[in-house]
Amino acid sequence: MITLLGPRGSGASEAHSALMEAFGAEHPFAYVSFGGEQSVLPRYALALLARQLERKLPRYRRSHFPRLTLGLLASDHELRMTSLADGRRGIRQELDRFQAENEARHGDYLAAFFEVAGGAVGAPDGASTAALALLRDAVRHGRRRLPGRKSTGNAAWYGGHPLTRSQDPWDALVELNLWRHEGDENDQDRLDRVLFSAFMEDLRQNAGRSFMPRSYLLLLDNSHTERGRRFLDLLIRARRDDALAPGTACDPLTVVASANRWLPRWGPATGDQWPWRLRGPDRASLEDWREHRPGRDSDDTWWYPLRLRDLTLDEVRVRIELELHDHPGLAPFTRLAPFVHRLTGGLPRAVRQVLDVLRQPGTPVEDGPDQDRWLRALPTRTAHEDEDARALIQAALDHLLRGFSDAERDSLAECAAARDLSIGTRVLSRGDALFSEARARWLLSPGTVTPTLHPWLRRLLLWRLAERPGDWDTVHELLAEHFAAERRLVQEMYHRLATGQVEAVTGHLVERFPAVPATQWISEFNAITSAPNRFRSDGTPLDLLAGLSPDDPRGSVTNESVIRDLVLTRWVWSDPLADPGMRLNNLIADGFNQLSRIRRSDIVALFNEAERYRHWRHPLTSTSEG
Predict the structure, then answer these.
(1) Residue 192: which of 38, 1, 45 has the closest Cα?
(2) 0.85 cut: is pTM over it?
(3) Cα–Cα distance between 164 and 175 in angstroms, integer?
(4) What is the pLDDT of residues 102-114, one digit of tens each?
(5) Residue 559 pLDDT more than 90?
(6) How far, CA to CA in Å, does 11 sit from each of 7, 17, 117, 281, 458?
(7) Helix or strand run (H / E) with residue 46
(8) How far is CA 252 from each of CA 51, 230, 239, 544, rounded to the nearest angstrom?
(9) Average pLDDT estimate for 563-577
(10) Are 64 and 202 in contact (CB under 8 A)?
């Protein structure tokens, strides 16, 4: 069970699309999403999957699912009977008639499920044209079975199943019907287990014949939902039960599921009690799974969890270039790839949303002050998603935080002021529930020791918090006081700067400058000046910087004046919306050169830092730098 894990918009749906495109033309695949408005029952999802797997492929004979079809026929169609004996006598004729009616209407019985649950086969988000064509081919209607082929010919399999009480095939099918229409929760569970077992047996029988596929691919999107989790539980149980049965062949099934939140069956979202450790997608392989799977034999050994990563700068640049085929108007913005990457953190959907805004009419295409001013207000620009025009910030937050109430969103915005979300929720008395929910939804930035919100989400939430000036100042003051009491001065100054206390920050850094090695001072300086801001929403980087500088700057060059200017410059630079083109690099480089002349010793690190900004290479940028 390959499981793609990450927040909403992390690219799992696009991965499903890529798998369709890579394998769908020559191999049987089926796709179902459990995340739509239509909550699909597990047995209906099985029918949709089986119907797609029956698609005729050039290299193979057609696959069939007679056992599953019979089980669905026998359970979903309410039999007209007054006793078990009546049901046994009439069930075959009734089921044959019911099958014939549906085949006359839909071409085959499984196609009928597109009427009751077809919404679950909608195209994955971001699907390519090729993937859409393959998916449409897989779900097309109208194939008719050969005359005389009846699913009731497989009734004997149900009579021999360990979960049915009767060994008589027709009694067993009547049992399925009673479980479906008159049974309790346990009966419903037993019915689902039998149907999943029938699906697995049909797969094995298909794969065992000549000129047939040796493996089938299931793509299960949004499996974190209640029905999605139920489907995964039933599927894993069926596979494990069959694997433990003596003489049963290994099932020919590859499953790729996606989940936007931690699954409860894995234990607490901390992951401490789950024997699996998340793997990165770049090294995913059968060998890697074998090497890292848990040693003990349990349901846990069936999983292969892959934590989706964000796009790199090069991948963002490639994404923009690929968009040019359909949207040539993006060509002038290819040089903005570093800006897009810094702003979004590389979250795939965020990159797509920003590109959608950039290609809107009226966007300045020339590199210069006008474009800088326009980009400064990018979160408020209109994004078009699903034929719904909203501000980018609203569209992005609604997608990432679906299910959060307005009050929870406001609280999360306040807690986002702290780099460490756990500290923010504790200091601001928001409780553990908010932090646990953010972690369970994969909203924390991957690959960091400190539990920080994903940089894109945090940036959007802080933008929202900046619209509430009183709350902004209160939150940062509370956090500054907390860190002051703990003598964590770097974190305290971070929040002092966020409220505009430039002189206090400058005084602290001036005092630290001769007291610690240059490399340590640079590290502390970088951490402090990456503080969030509440700058005005217009102006170029130089305009913003001029508005922050003192009205009567002293004429002499001193430690204090150089460090103050450097603090202000890098504070603006750290925000990609404030300095989208990194135009302040040279000013920062000049500031470090000035510091090297003032310090006189231990200056190599300062020179190196100056060169780093003067000849900037984006991969050196860390999450703490904007």
Answers:
(1) 45
(2) yes
(3) 7
(4) 666 666 777 777 7
(5) no
(6) 9, 10, 24, 12, 19
(7) helix 42-53
(8) 17, 21, 10, 61
(9) 97
(10) yes
